[in-house]
Amino acid sequence: HLIDCENQSEVESRFYKMYRDGSSLWEIKTAMNAEFLSLKLNCSLVAIHRMFKKYPPLRTQSILNTNLLLDVLFKDFQFPLSKVFSVPNLLSLHPEIALKFLSDIPTILGINTIELINKFPIVLRRPVCLIKRAENILKEYSITGDQLMCCPKIINFNPSTLQQRLEKLCNSEDFSLLISYKKFLWLVYHYSILERRLHSLKERGIPCSISVLTTSESQFDQYLSASDYRTCIKEICFYLAGVFSCTEILIREKLKEYPNIYDSSLTNCRKIVEFLLDAGVSKNQLLTGIGVVFYDFEVVKTFFHEMQNHDDCQPFADWINHYNLIQLLIYKIEVEAGLYRVTGNSDDYEELSMESV
Question: How do residues 316-325 score in pLDDT, each as one tens digit?
Fold first, then answer.
């Protein structure tokens, strides 16, 4: 494999010198592997020795095996050259195993296996049977290919661990709403720290989000100190867009109309939405007064029941279909609490009571 190189004589001279100087076979083998990889990957010997430092077995493994595997990675898996340097331990894989992996699993959750492996190459070292078991578990919980591509490391999890974590998260009131969220699998990946962080957030009355729960320790501490709730809005917009079958952009624009947009909690939002829809409120009515999701669920529930029996709202059967019903509910909550802020054209109770055009 070194015979056709341009500086063949120089390479041979270097090896003969090592042999005459009494270098060990291990040292000579290491030098040969370094020379081969330098030529194959078109890089310096310094770069190759950095790879050796990251993954020592490369020093003495078969040059024939390495050559065949690199050909497979470049041709069959469409690996870019840079990817080889980032995962040197992949080079100890037998080429036939790599090809069999691709043959046995052409797709994972509808994603082309080549695309997934290019994003997370180390999956090639995982037994095919375990990958298939993990895929079946993900399918059981309706996890999509896009979610997997957002956190491909999850496919390398032990199937029993993956099953256990998904089951607990999907049965959790705090996390079950996020199962279709694109970053949901990061919760599975960081499961070991979720309970502690969730407790810290609840203790301080701070809304939680996937970004906060899976961030670094330093960033999490900073979040607790700054009490920056903006990341929760992403999950709320995602959830509401699903409820109303519209875009997250539309939801975000409507939520911006309300001054307390960042005092939010996805769990509280879900409770309010489900309560009002079950009470006979239409989705159009709710969307018109979408800011109601920022109030405490118990407060919304109490004021809604009071409004049902209020003299000004009788007969309530006429009000239940009124376009401004939820806006009226918000108005009453704000006035009763002494927090009313006019942000639109509905300046008083009478205007809210006017028939919609």
Answer: 777 777 878 8
E strand or H helix at 317? helix 316-319
Running DSSP on this structure, what letter comes out for residue 24? -
Gap between the terminal Cα atoms of the chain: 82
Question: Element (H or E) spanning 31, and its range?
Answer: helix 25-40
Record the pTM.
0.63
Q: Is the separation of the CB atoms in 183 and 211 below 8 Å?
A: yes
- CB-based contact 130:92 (threshold 8 Å): no
| 250-304 pLDDT, tens digit each | 998 888 877 666 556 777 888 899 999 998 888 998 998 888 888 888 888 888 8
71's CB contacts (< 8 A; 6+ apart) are 95
Biggest CA pair distance of the chain: 106
Nearest Cα neighbor of 108 from 96, 124, 87, 91 is: 124
Distances (CA, A) of 132 to 99, 100, 158, 276, 280: 16, 14, 11, 42, 45
The rounded distance, in Å, linking the Cα atoms of 323 and 52 is 70
Name the one residue in this structure whose structure tokens are 């960081």: 190
Tokens of 13: 């001279």
Query: 264 is written with which tokens?
Result: 């939010």
Query: How far is it, in rounded angstroms, from Cα 333 to Cα 327?
Result: 10
Cβ neighbours, 10 Å, residue 36? 20
Q: Is 193:170 a contact under the CB 8 Å cutoff?
A: no
Compute the distance between CA of residue 294 and CA of residue 42 in angstroms, rounded to an integer: 59
**Residue 70: half-sphere exposure toward Cβ, Cα within 13 Å:** 19
Sequence-distant (6+) residues with CB within 8 A of 303 are: 329, 332, 333, 336
CB 37 within 8 A of CB 66: yes
